[in-house]
Design brief:
disordered C terminus, single chain, 70% helix, mainly alpha, 3 helices
């Protein structure tokens, strides 16, 4: 692992970005496991969207971005999209777990 100022070649920077990408994927995988578990604990697809929780998460992310001097206009849309993907997954998973949308016509 090199610090940015220790990178003397483009290849060094590319190696570090690749390393960070691998770490990000691992973190997303860990985050996803909690989203999946949350879907298992909920009993109705309407529980997937909790607007108060979404706002709280986005507020916390914004504070972290500011702490790290990262531009919110570059990262907040990503986080909003991530949350929407997670909500859509939860809605689908909760419905599947509780048999919604799987009724037969009886014919």
């Amino acid at each position: 692992m090199r610090k940015p100022e220790e990178c003397t070649e483009k290849a060094h920077i590319r190696d570090e970005i690749d390393r960070l990408d691998r770490a990000l994927v691992a973190l997303f995988s860990e985050r996803d496991s909690y989203v999946r578990r949350m879907a298992e604990l909920k009993t109705d697809p309407s529980e997937a969207r909790d607007d108060d929780r979404v706002k709280a998460v986005l507020d916390k992310v914004l504070a972290e971005l500011e702490t790290h001097e990262l531009a919110p206009d570059l990262y907040m849309q990503f986080w909003e999209d991530l949350i929407e993907v997670n909500i859509a997954y939860e809605e689908m998973a909760i419905a599947a777990l509780h048999g919604e949308g799987n009724e037969t016509s009886g014919a």
